[in-house]
C-alpha cells in the first residue's frame, strides 16, 4: 500500500515539473529531435562514458562493554567498509558538449510550465509538430505517448 501511495505521489510531482527542452521557434519537432539525437551521438563520441569506481571512507565502530555495576570498558571494535559506487567523470563535460552542439544549431534550452488542469482539459487533443512562439502565457500538456502539446493560455 505504501509503495503505491509513494508511486502516485512521485507521478503527481513529475506531472508538475516544467518541461525542459531545446527550443527554436518555427522548427519542426521532428527536426529538433533529429538534431538532438545527432548532438547526443556527437557528445558521446567527444566525451565518452568514463566510469570510475569509488568508495566512501570506512567507519570505525568502537566496542564498549559494561558490567552489572555500570562500569564500562572500551576495547576493540570493528570497521564498517565504505560504500562502493560508480561515477561517470565525463557526464558534466558530455552535457556541455551537447548544449554547445544544440546552440550551434540554433536551439536554446527552455523550461515550459505544465498547463493548469482547466487549460489542459479545454485544449483539443493533439501534439505540437512545429515549435510555436513562446510567451508568458505558454504552457505544455504532456500526452500519454510522451509527446507535447504547447498552447498559449487565454
Notable characteristics:
alpha+beta; 4 helices; 8 strands; 31% strand
Largest sheet: 2 strands, antiparallel
Give the quaternary arrangement of the chains. Answer: single chain
Secondary structural class: alpha+beta
Helix content: 25-40%
Fold and architecture overview:
The structure is a single chain. This protein is α+β, with helices and mostly antiparallel strands. The protein has a domain at 51-88. The chain has four helices and eight strands.
Task: Note the topology.
Elements: H1 2-16, E1 19-23, H2 29-46, E2 51-55, E3 59-66, E4 72-80, E5 84-88, H3 91-104, E6 108-112, H4 117-122, E7 138-142, E8 148-152
Antiparallel strand pairs: 1-6, 2-5, 3-4, 7-8
Helix pairs in contact: 2-3
Short structural description:
The chain has 154 residues and is α+β, with helices and mostly antiparallel strands.
Amino acid at each position: 500500500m505504501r509503495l503505491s501511495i509513494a508511486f502516485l505521489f512521485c507521478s503527481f510531482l513529475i506531472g508538475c515539473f516544467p518541461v525542459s527542452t531545446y527550443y527554436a521557434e518555427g522548427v519542426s519537432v521532428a527536426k529538433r529531435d533529429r538534431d538532438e539525437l545527432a548532438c547526443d551521438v556527437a557528445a558521446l563520441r567527444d566525451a565518452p562514458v568514463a566510469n570510475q569506481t569509488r568508495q566512501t571512507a570506512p567507519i570505525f565502530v568502537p566496542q564498549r562493554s559494561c558490567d552489572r555495576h555500570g562500569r564500562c570498558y572500551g576495547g576493540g571494535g570493528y570497521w564498517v567498509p565504505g560504500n562502493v559506487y560508480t561515477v561517470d567523470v565525463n557526464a558534466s563535460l558530455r552535457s556541455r558538449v551537447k548544449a554547445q552542439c544544440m546552440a550551434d544549431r540554433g536551439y536554446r534550452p527552455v523550461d515550459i510550465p505544465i498547463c493548469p488542469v482547466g487549460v489542459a482539459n479545454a485544449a483539443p487533443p493533439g501534439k505540437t509538430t512545429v515549435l510555436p512562439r513562446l510567451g508568458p502565457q505558454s504552457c505544455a500538456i504532456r500526452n500519454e505517448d510522451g509527446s507535447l502539446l504547447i498552447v498559449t493560455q487565454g
